[in-house]
Amino acid sequence: MLLYGDFPYGPNERKAFADRRFQKVLASKYPQLFDDDDMRIAMTQPGNHFFEWLAAVRLYLDIGYISLIEKYQFPRHQRKHSIFKSTVPPEVYDLVARRGYFGARQGPDLFTYRLDGGDWLFCEVKGGPDRVRDSQAIFWGQIERVSGRPIMLMHFHEGGREPGAATESGG
Asked: How far apart are alpha carbons 150 and 107 in whole angstroms?
């Protein structure tokens, strides 16, 4: 696992996400990143996914990659699953699509890719005191071995930024 970075977020951003306001701002500004399914999940689970949304914006601003936030490995999420399956090699797909492998419930938080299909990566997102669990580390080590690519780790900590700062160029 390779640390991509440790980034601040504003406490008001997190509150606005919990109040179901910040998702609307980000989805409006970055429609290429967030689809109706992302919005539905974020609105019905406003206490979750905040850090994943910040990470998707950060990766888009930093390197221009599009992120699929969670659920990409499950066929029920047809659009995300189709992109994932058609982008990665079959052996990576087979490994990640096996739910419950090594005791991990699902793959890394984000599947991130270039629109031209020329490159892709997995990214795990942690915020505050959350850390990589042993079952995750085992599963992700296997993903790294099969894919030949490190899983990027992004960590977010409270840093006093104002709401909307994640939507500005440079994060």
From this structure: 13
Residue with tokens 């990214």: 123
Q: Read off φ and ψ for residue 3, nearest 5 degrees.
A: -70, 115
For residue 171, what pLDDT is reported? Answer: 42
- According to DSSP, residue 139 is labeled H
Both tokens of residue 154?
């992004």
Instruction: Read off the tokens for 18.
Output: 């919990």
DSSP state of 55: H
Q: Is the pTM of this model over 0.90?
A: no
> What residue spans of the chain are helical by DSSP H?
11-18, 22-29, 36-44, 50-63, 78-87, 90-96, 134-147
| CA–CA–CA angle 54, 120, 62 (5° rounding) | 40
Residue 148's identity, in one-letter code, is G
Question: Which tokens belong to 149?
Answer: 């690519």
